[in-house]
Amino acid sequence: MKIAQIAPLAESVPPKLYGGTERIVSYLTEALIDQGHDVTLFASGDSITRAELVPVTDMALRLNPHVRDPIPYHMMLLDAVRQRADEFDALHFHIDLVHMPMFQDIIGRCITTLHGRLDLPDLVPFYQTFPNHSLVSISDHQRLPMPPVNWAGTVYHGLPADLLPPKIACDDGYLAFLGRISPEKRPDRAIRIAARSGKPLKIAAKIDNVDKGYWEAEIAPLLSLYPNIDFIGEINETQKAEFLGGASALLFPIDWPEPFGLVMIEAMACATPVIAFRCGSVPEIIDHGVSGFIVDTEDQAVEAVSRLGELDRSAVRAAFDARFTADRMAAGYVSLYHALPGARTDAARLRRERGDEAELHLQVVG
Q1: Under 8 Å between Cβ of 107 and 131
Q2: pLDDT tens sequence across 215-244
Q3: How high is the pLDDT of residue 170?
Q4: Residues 107 and 39 in one domain
Q5: 214 and 285 fall within a common domain
Q6: What pTM does this model have?
């Protein structure tokens, strides 16, 4: 198929540092190319891809100090996609909802993955106005707050199988927290759990401007209080394997309806178990007692740290391989592209060119 992938402009594809949605767009784009599809990526100009890149901006908006308002640039993105829309068998949007009014007339070839939280009251009237767009959730739990809409399916995120090598043999090391410093991510819980467990904690996280007050008032004082905490700051993709692979466990102490939680499968790829609070997608991602422990309280999390020796790290990696590779993610999306009511497909030609007449075995959850 000839497929358009439309990415947010806040980060490059893949992002230089933090950026979950753009990272998934990158993994999906490259996996689709590996599976024989013709992909065009609409993204910032500093993106790196084997697809045809349509550079809407010179660089990612978050890294550009001159950008104050992202909306004009996303309008430019929509115009660029609209001008070339007739070229594509399917158009896959990763920019939430801003495109929907402009693409009503070709809705049959469009699909939108919703990457963020959906429990916001302002979203209800919008999706009641635009109920017919084909939507993809990244977990079943993510769907719960939504009014009746056209769910095409749930496709879990995936990573390239060779991106993060597993570290099966791991000494009794530190606990890890990876992501973003914010109230809903609850780094304060991670600090207390580590302190009560008597284990060191390494925190690799970004601090957005909006969360600087929370950092200064709530988290920085805890770092002074507990000497076994090492705040590393934001790390890049190449640093993740060592950071996660060297940990006894990833702490995922969230306090919000997490739509997916990419860091959980990043840890699993490294064969590192996850201790996660029962919120949002967590019960769909973590197999309790196999790839980690699901807890409801800090007391349970401290107990889970003491039980990490019960888990087989090779089984943690096997859980990742079974469910969360980029190839499985791409196969799931391809099946949804084919199911679009207006999709055009040249899949038979692609199979002939590859000399492969066998049908793809596609896994879609939902």
Answers
A1: no
A2: 999 999 988 888 889 999 988 878 999 999
A3: 75
A4: yes
A5: yes
A6: 0.89
